[in-house]
Design goal:
Helix content is 54%, strand content 11%. It is built from 23 helices and 14 strands.
């Protein structure tokens, strides 16, 4: 019998697998995932020790484990430790990219981890750790700032009789061990305890660990006390929402949300958040518009953490003969996604949709926004899952999980939603997929050339070859395919606040990627939006969003039905043929006339 067969293996019992397949997972299931992640970190650490000499840091960590095992366990499961382990192992096996930290600084982060373990375990020691642009991050403790101009160097962390110091460049920074108070040259890591004692969420508001940003590390960027207090208040309010409306999810989060790293924000209604399977329990998030938005972000990224933990134990996709080039429509992204990425998004947005399903009845207000969000995300989820639910690469567990989630979504689609937000959600969902198609799909060149000849020859309709499956040709710079949905949120928020909506041009200017026609469409003025999109096509005939937007406006206005159909379902055909005709004849054809012709039965 091999030594490997004697090793214990982590596994999830049927009840836990069933919970996760439903997009859920209670505290016991999350504890199992967390335990498996801890074992994975130990294995990665062993791999690192085999790959390079960790020197005295290994001895210090071992001493800390003997003195205070729980200290080392907590440090190992910390999300940023997982991110660092994945980063350093990739660096040791690959080629460094430009502007990356030197390898000695990446490997040397282990010394900083060992120093923290020694400090928390109450050991006396001295060890050299990396200095990054004058800062010495000590994971979960904080960050010392030294007067040095060198980008990379070393400092000494020393502890004797429970008095800790960071020393370098002739400067000494005391490290407080009994409090989280700031001091000269010291920025503490903020450990937050949110909520009532028996339902408390404990996490680190991490602004100093270089591995707090996923997937690439960044330098420490300490928050001001004012900004940190704002985050405390927002987290407290978001946690109150989750305890009231999603108590089961909140209880599970207590063991599975370990750190939140503030990151630069985007515009209103476009929060930015990131997580990584290598950093179980961690997330980056931009400052939210309000506590509800933060509650949604917590749910979203917690879903990613659970699925990442599951995938470290068992696959949902087989390798098969896949060459990695197959790309899919993801309604929450601007870019085409591989099937693994699409599955991650589906799992995350099941949680988001479930949140809005509950929240729309828990608000106690007449707001249309929660109904709109629920209706929009269930539409998006249904479309995403319909693409891949029979995909041959799904493992039996993958097929079960996706089938279960699809059944949930089918039930959600039957639930009543007030007419106005339902109509807006359907408009936004259809518009998003049309814009994605206009940007990322290309009909075959031969079919486009045949269509040009048919048009110029006076054929009654386009050639049948144009209906062939188009090729996915990603446009990497695409941004803002959700512009109409963002503009609808502006409209609904103004309704909630009983404000007079501003001029469409002003609202469009607030939203990256939005056209004036988009704002008119979101405001319900489809007839004027139609003219705005036609004007935009006249000025820029190759603008994909204008073609898709024109289709949405025509459909909303109930005019030019053949043109509306082709532009909503196959805008890539109109864009490609229009461009080819313009190049061939030197004169662009009338967009509506061309779209109507393309919507006719094939000649």
């Amino acid at each position: 019998m091999s030594a490997e067969s004697l090793l214990p293996h982590h596994h999830l019992p049927p009840d836990s697998l069933a919970e996760l397949a439903h997009g859920e997972g209670g505290p016991a299931t999350v504890d199992l995932l967390r335990a498996a992640e801890h074992s994975r970190r130990l294995l990665l650490l062993r791999m690192l020790d085999d790959a390079t000499d960790l020197g005295p840091a290994w001895d210090l960590l071992s001493a800390a484990q003997r003195r205070a095992p729980s200290v080392v366990d907590d440090l190992l499961i910390y999300p940023q430790t997982g991110m660092w382990l994945a980063t350093v192992l990739r660096r040791l096996r690959g080629t460094p990219q430009q502007d990356e930290p030197p390898l000695r600084a990446v490997v040397g982060h282990f010394s900083a981890l060992a120093a923290v373990a020694g400090l928390r375990a109450g050991l006396d020691f001295a060890i050299d750790v990396p200095v990054r642009h004058g800062r010495v991050p000590l994971p979960t403790l904080g960050c010392a700032v030294l007067p040095t101009t060198e980008p990379w160097g070393t400092a000494t962390v020393r502890c004797e009789n429970e008095r800790a110091l960071v020393e370098a460049s002739g400067a000494t920074v005391p490290v407080p061990l009994r409090s989280e108070a700031a001091g000269p040259g010291w920025h503490p890591a903020r450990r937050l305890a949110i909520g009532p004692p028996d339902r408390r969420l404990e996490l680190v508001l991490d602004d100093v660990d270089p591995y707090r940003t996923y997937p690439e590390p960044t330098e420490p960027s300490p928050l001001s006390e004012e900004a940190a207090q704002q985050w405390r208040q927002l987290l407290d309010q978001a946690w109150t929402v989750l305890l009231r409306e999603q108590p089961g999810t909140a209880e599970a989060m207590r063991g599975g949300v370990l750190s939140l790293s503030p990151t630069s924000g985007g515009e209103r209604f476009r929060p930015r958040s990131v997580s990584s399977a290598d950093a179980f329990g961690g997330m980056e998030a931009s400052k939210p518009d309000d506590p509800v938005e933060l509650a949604v972000t917590l749910v979203h990224e917690f879903q990613h953490s659970k699925l990442g933990g599951l995938l470290h134990l068992t696959p949902l996709l087989s390798d098969g003969d896949a060459d990695g080039t197959e790309l899919w429509y993801a309604p929450w992204r601007d870019d085409p996604r591989p099937i693994a990425g699409l599955l991650q998004g589906i799992y995350a947005f099941v949680g988001v949709t479930r949140f809005w399903r509950t929240h729309r009845w828990a608000t106690g207000t007449r707001s249309a926004m929660p109904h709109f969000e629920f209706a929009l995300w269930r539409e998006h989820l249904a479309r995403a899952m319909e693409q891949i639910h029979l995909h041959p690469r799904l493992t039996p567990l993958g097929a079960t999980l996706l089938g279960t989630l699809r059944d949930h979504c089918a039930q959600w689609l039957q639930e009543p939603v007030p007419e106005a937000p339902l109509a807006l959600a359907r408009l936004c969902a259809a518009d998003h997929v049309a814009r994605w198609r206009a940007h990322h799909l290309r009909p075959a060149r031969s079919a486009v050339e045949e269509a040009v000849r048919a048009w110029l020859g006076g054929a009654d309709g386009p050639p049948g070859s144009l209906a062939a499956e188009p090729e996915v040709v990603p446009e990497p710079a695409v941004r803002g395919l959700d512009s109409v949905a963002i503009l609808v949120r502006y409209r609904l928020a103004a309704d909630d606040d009983q404000q007079t909506p501003e001029e469409p041009e002003k609202t469009a200017a607030r939203v990256a990627g939005a056209l004036t026609g988009d704002a008119l469409l979101a405001a319900g003025d489809a007839a004027v939006a139609r003219h705005a999109f036609l004007a935009h096509i006249a000025a820029d005939p190759d603008h994909p969003a204008a073609w898709a937007g024109l289709g949405s406006a025509l459909a909303a206005a109930g005019t030019d039905r053949q043109a509306a159909h082709i532009l909503r379902h196959h805008p890539e055909r109109a864009r490609s043929v229009h461009l080819a005709l313009s190049r061939t004849t030197g004169t662009p054809p009338d967009p509506l006339r061309l779209a109507t012709w393309l919507g006719s039965s094939p000649a």
